[in-house]
Write a structure and sequence with these properties.
Radius of gyration: 14 Å
Shape: elongated
Number of strands: 3
Helix content: 40-55%
Organism: Gracilibacillus xinjiangensis
Pfam families: YuzC
Strand content: 25-35%
Oligomer: single chain
InterPro entries: YuzC
Protein name: DUF3887 domain-containing protein
Length: 90
Amino acid sequence: MFQQSAAAFQKIARESITILEKFTEPEFSQSLMTAAQAGNQKEVDRLIKSIGTSTPVEVKYTPTGLLLTIYADAQGTQCCTLSMFLRWGN
């Protein structure tokens, strides 16, 4: 199980890079930040899904940033998570 968890984590680590690369695109990041700061969870979720990752991503936001948690499964059970907090304000 440990080896499968490590392999699953490698996958979500790669997907986190895909997400971060998308966040560096000015138009996308502005749209995401605007939707989050307006409290538009539906649009935030749509934007995150549009990135095209295959693992579930949970998104929460605050006035100062965005918290993403990516989940992975091994042997049919949730084995690992990767959380990232990205700050956009003071």
